[in-house]
Amino acid sequence: MNETPDETELKKLPGWTYNPEKKCLMKDFSFKSYLKTISFVNAIAWLANKENHHPDLIVSFGKCTVELTTHDEGGVSEKDFKLAALIENL
Question: Which domain holds residue 49?
């Protein structure tokens, strides 16, 4: 695995960025209500469980920050890009 993610793959994910300090892909999602935010979080939880890959989620009113990293590999892997693409399709 590389220290930094594949820029070509990252460009396929609008709004996602790479955080070098946390070695993760991340994106903020905004919603009009807390219930819509929690519904989004539950959908991510379902996808993550299915993919056996578990992101860090920071949840507040109307906002969810998703952070994806593969801890076993010490940074971003194909698993992260795959889950990010699935989240984009929600």
Answer: 7-88
Q: For 60-81, what is each residue's pLDDT tens digit?
A: 999 999 999 998 888 999 999 9
Dihedral over Cα of 12, 17, 21, 24: its sign: negative
Let me know if residue 33 belongs to a domain.
yes
Q: Is residue 2 in some structural domain?
A: no
In terms of Cα–Cα distance, which of 9, 72, 66, 73 is closest to 43?
66
| Enclosing H/E stretch for 46 | helix 34-51
Residue 38: how many CB atoms within 10 A of its CB? 13
pTM, full prediction: 0.92
